[in-house]
Amino acid sequence: MLGLVVTDHIFTAHPEMPEGSLAKLRAAVVSEPTLAAVAAELGVGACLRLGKGEAGSGGREKASILSDAMEAIIGAVYVDGGLDAARAVVLDLLGDRISIEAVGPGSADFKSQLQEILARRGEGAPVYELSDEGPDHDKRFFARVAVDGTVIGEGQGRSKKLAEQAAAQAAFIRLVPVTVPGDDHHQQEQRDA
Q1: For residue range 105-137, what is the model confidence (pLDDT) as tens digits?
Q2: Third-level CATH fold of 2-102
Q3: DSSP assignment, residue 32?
Q4: Strand 127-133 relative to strand 140-147: parallel, antiparallel, unpaired?
Q5: Is residue 132 classed as helix, strand or coil in its secondary structure?
Q6: How many Å apart are CA 171 and CA 181, to the nearest integer?
Q7: How far apart (Å, rounded) are the C-alpha atoms in residues 11 and 78?
Q8: Is the pTM of this model over 0.70?
Q9: Domains 2-102 and 110-178 share a fold
């Protein structure tokens, strides 16, 4: 179910992307580390029913167990609510990560990339400001990144890290616009902006 929803979403959202890049994007998102990170952010480990040995050996933090638990949760949502409910949950949980990974393999660390481009330009270091809202079990984080007191990007996510990455991505795209090869209209809009 997870693979189906993510594959459908990235194919629809990124029709310009070559097949190989789509496969890499899907693999990066539908992976044990990603699912384990989402499970950890949601506090799934504390809710798991584990045997005494597994619980005693740190099973609640084990990536393989957390990843399997996330797959089971998504499967349960599908069984209970159908495809639309499962799609909504998957995209809510993974949408930020899909957006970050979609820029290209190895380019998901926008904080580092932003810092590098600012250093090359001789500008100040980026400064992040965080806020959050919502109950602990459904918290949303908001980040703003500024250089020399000027806000250059804003973003949000289900964790502080994702919110900062989203803000850095917005700033990076503002400084170095991402264009689709052959998309002259988009390139003209960027020049006019």
Answers
A1: 455 578 888 888 888 888 999 999 999 998 887
A2: Ribonuclease iii, N-terminal Endonuclease Domain; Chain A (1.10.1520)
A3: H
A4: antiparallel
A5: strand
A6: 21
A7: 21
A8: no
A9: no
